[in-house]
Inverse folding.
């Protein structure tokens, strides 16, 4: 997973601690990494809730250790990026980085892979033993400068699969306990229940020690330092007269930040948004929001101040993009469609969708994948979490009534297309929306149909009775007859369709699919 390395272009610019901030934590970690600490445990676990700066601390430590030749490998997980959440590539990615440091180790690895090309596809425990533990036994780790180097694994909770997260911990700690690898292991994560239970088990208590990064007002002075430095850059780049912003404004922002780094970082990005009337106007909006909403959000909610900002972000989306933006975010969360597929489902051109993306660029960005391809990347999963929870996002949630209405709209569209289309080669669509000229109607039909099924399978959001009744009235045989044979075969064999019988209203569809399995798919 090269995109997950600490110095990868995909992560640029990476989150890291502002100069002079988080010094206590960084010094403590560096002492451990260099063997100067009273803590001699080979595993260090940094835990804390979202937005407190765990990744920034890990990045700063990695950059400090690199020139000292004390860094072995780094891996920064990201659940929102399929190239950075794959557990099957965790240890192979670490091993690859070690081969770049040690030629002797690289020769051993090369020979092992040549002998068994399938070794990288085996279980992660087998990979660890055969591609790390065994090869290390064949070289002098001290002579080759590997002894005591640090492996950093950041955001373990964002690795795909709870069970495998715990397995990774057990593999690493077992190796550390048995001294089968010469490394120190630095792991950061949210204190998720499964990880917490694994780390706090009696078997691991003597192998690791923990540092907790919490949301604390003790760092207000660091946040103020960060704001002053960042606003100085903004003021100079925009030619604003000083002093700006006022001391009162800075104090209010620090107060509203309440020790949550990600909130402050998000505000700075919002104020520095180029697609606005300028930083002064953006700052006025932020200050107005924090003043107006201070009594609207429950103070006991630890995410209250973050929610204020996210609500502002949603309110600032132009009316023309409001519904489209929320649907785009909902479809993106399904991990079913790429950006082109989302545009196709929404009946938009890619350029139109890109314009919509700019309306949420305070919390997300379009990242180029090369060859005119892009992906939507959210700066932090907390924004998605916010939109999932109707109690936090109020009328901006992508679930609840919004999801129900979108399902019904797609269902009505499918019903209209099925009733009007007589020939699969000539789809008859409703007059609205007007599709871009280049859109293939057959592809859009299949895209909408697949998306509708995906939306019906959103966990913890069952189909409502009205939608279920409408589904049962669909002309399923004709609906499936409009799909090419090869595509329908994929639908029939898709594992996700096994769960459809749990939803009232899909009985008719399953009966038709059952008939197709027996009689053969239509041509």
């Amino acid at each position: 997973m090269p995109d997950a390395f600490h110095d990868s272009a995909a992560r640029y610019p990476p989150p890291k601690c502002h100069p002079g901030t988080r010094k206590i934590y960084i010094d403590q970690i560096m002492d451990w990494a260099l063997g100067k600490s009273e803590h001699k445990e080979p595993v260090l676990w940094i835990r804390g809730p979202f937005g407190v700066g765990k990744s920034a601390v890990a990045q700063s430590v990695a950059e400090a250790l690199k020139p000292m030749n004390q860094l072995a490998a780094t891996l920064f997980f990201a659940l929102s990026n399929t190239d950075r959440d794959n557990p099957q590539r965790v240890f192979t990615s670490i091993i690859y980085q070690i081969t770049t440091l040690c030629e002797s180790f690289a020769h051993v690895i090369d020979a092992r892979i040549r002998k068994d090309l399938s070794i990288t596809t085996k279980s992660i425990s087998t990979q660890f033993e055969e591609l790390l533990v065994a090869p290390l036994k064949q070289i002098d780790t001290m002579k080759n400068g590997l002894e005591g180097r640090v492996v950093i694994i950041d955001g373990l909770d964002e690795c795909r699969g709870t069970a495998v997260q715990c397995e990774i911990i057990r593999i690493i700690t077992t190796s550390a306990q048995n001294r089968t690898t010469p490394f120190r292991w630095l792991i950061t994560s949210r204190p998720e229940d499964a990880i917490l239970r694994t780390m706090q088990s009696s078997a691991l208590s003597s192998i690791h020690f923990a540092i907790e990064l919490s949301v604390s007002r003790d760092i207000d002075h660091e946040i103020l330092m960060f704001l002053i430095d960042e606003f100085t850059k903004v003021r100079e780049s925009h030619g604003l007269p000083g002093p700006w912003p006022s001391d009162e404004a800075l104090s209010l922002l620090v107060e509203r930040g309440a020790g949550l780094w990600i909130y402050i970082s998000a505000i700075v990005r919002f104020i520095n948004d180029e697609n606005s009337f300028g930083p002064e106007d953006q700052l006025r909006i932020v200050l107005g929001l924090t003043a107006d909403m201070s009594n609207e959000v429950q103070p006991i909610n630890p995410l209250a101040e973050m929610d204020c900002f996210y609500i502002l972000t949603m309110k600032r989306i132009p009316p023309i993009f409001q519904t489209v933006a929320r649907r785009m975010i909902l479809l993106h969360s399904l991990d079913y469609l790429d950006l082109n597929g989302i545009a196709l489902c929404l009946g938009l051109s890619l350029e139109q969708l890109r314009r919509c993306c700019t309306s949420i660029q305070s919390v997300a960005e379009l990242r180029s994948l090369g060859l005119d391809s892009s992906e939507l990347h959210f700066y932090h999963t907390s924004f998605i979490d916010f939109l999932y929870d109707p109690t936090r996002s109020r009328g901006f949630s992508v679930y609840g009534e919004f999801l129900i209405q979108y399902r019904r709209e797609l269902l009505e569209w499918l019903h209209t297309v099925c009733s009007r289309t007589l020939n699969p080669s000539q789809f008859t669509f409703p007059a609205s929306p007007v599709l871009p000229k280049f859109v293939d109607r057959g592809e859009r039909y299949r895209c909408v149909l697949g998306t509708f099924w995906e939306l019906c399978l959103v966990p913890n959001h069952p189909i409502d009775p009205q939608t279920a009744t409408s589904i049962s009235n669909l002309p399923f045989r004709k609906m499936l007859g409009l799909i090419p044979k090869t595509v329908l075969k994929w639908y029939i064999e898709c594992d996700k369709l096994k769960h459809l019988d749990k939803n009232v209203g899909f009985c008719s569809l399953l009966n038709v699919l059952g008939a197709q399995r027996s009689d053969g798919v239509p041509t």
